[in-house]
Task: structure prediction
Amino acid sequence: MLDNAPLLLLRHAFYLINVITKYINCIYVKYYQLFVNVSCKNIFFLSYFFKNNFLTQFTTFADLAVKDILSTSYRFNCYYVFLTYSFFSRFVIETSTDELVGLPSLYFLYNSANWIERECWDMFGIFFHSHPDLRRLLNDYGFQGFPLRKDFPLTGYYEIYFNDYFQIILFTPVVLAQELRFFYFQKSWS
Result:
C-alpha cells in the first residue's frame, strides 16, 4: 500500500489543480501526505468540497494543529488534518491567521470540530466564526490570557489554591523565592 500512496496523492493533487485552482495557493506532497495551502476565507468551502466530493471523500476531521510565529504578519499557522478511509490517505489544509481575523468554524460540517476549535480558542485565542459554543475548555473561566502564545508570561500573576482551614478558594500573588537556589558562576565545561 505504501508503494501506491505517492501515486494516489499525485492523482489527488492533479485533480485539485484542475478543479479548484482559484481557491488554492500551493499544493505539495510531503511525508506521504497531501498539503494544500489556502487563504483562511476559503477553508469552509474547501473542506465542504473535500468531504462531499466522490473522488476525495475526506469524511473525518482528525486534528487542528497551530504553530505560533511572532515575526510574521499572520502569526498563527494552522494545519487542518483530514482522513479518508476509502483511499487510506491523509490530507492537510494549511492556512495562516492572526488574533483579529480568526477562522471559519467547521462545526456544522464535522462534529469533531467542536472540541478541537474550543481547545484552539482556549490555548491560542484564535476566534472561530459561527461556532455556537466557543468558551473555555481547559482553563478556568477567570483565566486571563492564552497559555500557548509566545507572548504569554512564563510566571502567572496569581496562584489559586483551596485552603482547608477556611474552606475557601484563595487567590494570592505569586512569589518566586530565590533563597534556596545556589548559583555557581563557573563555566559548565570546566
